[in-house]
Amino acid sequence: RAELLKEAEGLPKLLVCSQAAANAVMMGCGYFNPLTGYMNLADSLSVAEGMKTTGGLFWPVPIVNVVEDAAAIGDAKRIALLDPNVDGNPVIAIQDIESIDVATDEQMAKMSEKIFATTDTEHPGVKNFMSVGKTFIAGPIQVLSYSYFAADFPDTFRTAVEIRDMIEKNGWSKVVAFQTRN
Prior knowledge:
Blueprint: H1 2-9, E1 13-15, H2 18-29, E2 37-38, H3 41-50, E3 66-67, E4 78-82, E5 91-96, E6 99-102, H4 105-116, H5 124-131, E7 135-143, H6 149-152, H7 160-170
């Protein structure tokens, strides 16, 4: 972690939106296994349309790092992602950039309709999704922070490994997980 934080000092910086930061935490905690990073536009469209990536992995919603403008990172292959939810915007992750794609208005509307069953910006999910931009920055990430979650929710915040350990320790044989879409 210390080496990555030192490396981050010299990398181009990108302030991500709150949902991209939350998704970084989810990946870092192991909740989104086997995902290792943000989806590109093709995978996002495929997931929105048929709940599978272009490679066939079942996934209910696109996991994306979408920004209004990626000009600040230029042609960098590795960038530091800054946390919008913590004072001072510390580095939350380092991302390797595999692709930068710009979605059309029609593609954004299609994803919104498929994911949220509406394009009405009064819907909070649609409003969030449609307001951050159309530039998809894809690639694997190395998470350096769990943002504010561990500090603000110390009694309940757990990584996937910690949850599995708790299940085993308690001898629970039945566990139910639920993901909703639409």
